[in-house]
Amino acid sequence: MPYDTAIDPEQVRAFLEEHPEVKVVCVCNHDTPSGTLNDIDAIGAVVAEAGALLLVDAVSSWAGMPTSPTSSQAAVYVTGPNKCLGCPPSLSLVAVSEAAWAKIEANPDAPFASMLSFTDWKNAWKRTEPFPFTPSVAELNGLNAALDRYLEEGPEAVWKRHALTARVCREGIKAMGVELWPVSEDIASPTATAVKMPDGIDAGPVLVETRARYGISMSAGRAETRGKLIRIGHMGPTAQPAYALLAVSAMGGALKALGAKVDVAAGLAAAQAAWDAAIDE
Predict the structure, then answer these.
(1) Which fold does the domain 155-280 belong to in CATH?
(2) How high does pLDDT run on average in the chain?
(3) For residue 144, what is the DSSP state?
(4) What is the mean pLDDT of residues 106-112?
(5) 182-202: string of b/e by CB count within 10 Å (b at 16+)?
(6) Of 133, 134, 180, 208, which has fewest CB within 10 angstroms of its CB?
(7) Strand pairing partners for 36?
(8) pTM of the full predicted structure?
(9) CA angle, corner 88, sides to 83 and 90, nearest 5?
(10) In angstroms, what CA-CA distances link 8 with 15, 23, 48, 265?
(11) Which fold has domain 9-153?
């Protein structure tokens, strides 16, 4: 499947019908190397109908858009506070369903007495239960503060802010004369904008230029997308329209310096117009 597309839930259905022996399905909500979104709610419904369990990677989507273990019917839903909550990259947040616990407990080979063992952490969330291992106190305090901030702003407001930042960025990129990486904006993530490099331009030198010229860091692709795209993150503290304007300016300047035909002024005007339109709504 091309990396500029998303998983079709009906393809998942067809595969599970052909392979009823499959009992666990894994899916990534936001594929960060390509900036695309997979519809985990629709996929989760298909997996549930097949009687299988769904494992979800929501590391770079949860708290930046409407997604949850409940809506996706996930058996195991993994995320982290270091992306859309803006915490240090140190903790994992995991939701485990009753069906998943039952499968784990029925498995005689399930690991235990390990920091990576779900069974050892099952009751660690309770105030009355001790942590099975030495806790990362500073990181837990940071998570607590980030959650307070998230709830104070309101989840819907946080999601709206991420979506607006992505919209401002994408409007600027397109108006500048550069294509987005996803085949459709319908599957583009609100937490990152993936930009397709113009013909003859490798992403590596562009990243060097944005850093050297403007002090702005962006991300490369991975594996098959390396060199072909650049990712602009919109997560946590950077999910602000002002950062999108800076990103459009820096990418445009870097591309222009490397010989690409781009209209930086048009890109910035379009990005500003998208921001103003949201303010005036």
Answers:
(1) Aspartate Aminotransferase, domain 1 (3.90.1150)
(2) 95
(3) H
(4) 86
(5) beeeebbbbbbbbbbbbeebe
(6) 134
(7) 31, 188
(8) 0.94
(9) 95
(10) 11, 19, 16, 38
(11) Aspartate Aminotransferase; domain 2 (3.40.640)
The pair of structure tokens assigned to 19 is 């392979």
Tokens 């903790």 belong to residue: 91
Identify the sign of the CA torsion 239, 242, 243, 244: positive
Distance CA 51, CA 103 (A): 13
Q: Residues 218-222: contacts with CB within 8 Å, 24+ apart?
A: 218/247, 218/250, 218/251, 221/33, 221/34, 221/194, 222/32, 222/33
Alpha helices in the chain (DSSP H): 9-18, 40-49, 69-72, 98-105, 118-121, 137-153, 155-176, 203-214, 241-257, 264-280
**pLDDT tens digits, 141-169:** 999 999 999 999 999 999 999 999 999 99
Between CA 166 and CA 184 the distance in angstroms is 14
